[in-house]
Amino acid sequence: VQLVESGGGLAQPGGSLRLSCAASGFSASEYAMSWVRQAPGKGLEWVAGIGADTSRIGYGDSVKGRCTISRDNARNMVYLQINTVKPEDTALYYCAKDRGLYGDMDSWGKGTLVTVIS
After folding, report:
1. Is the Cα torsion angle 18, 19, 25, 26 positive or negative in sign?
2. What is the pLDDT of residues 42-76, one digit of tens each?
3. Could you write out the DSSP letters of every residue in 17-43?
4. Distance of alpha carbon 84 from alpha carbon 23, whole angstroms
5. Cα angle value 116/91/98 (rounded, 5°)
């Protein structure tokens, strides 16, 4: 299993970012996928998840209404669009493969850093 995140960087409050995750080494289209994040000095926080066939999608309370998770199974890609970013969105964002339903993760990438500065 290989998960490679990209798209992080600097953003200003109110701006937007789109994170990407390239999945390989497994049949990504058969698995739910999640995004999780870790802010400086804090634990892992589940951000969003999407079922294998996209019929189920969920978001963490802290990003609900501001994030959109999507996937392109033909390209083995998963995306996270973050709108109206806030300083508290500053974190290392990881793409994760789920065992079953999203949120039950068993593999992670190395992460992409998002820093929101005013």
Report:
1. negative
2. 999 999 999 998 889 999 999 999 999 999 999 99
3. EEEEEEEESS-GGGS-EEEEEE-TTS-
4. 27
5. 135
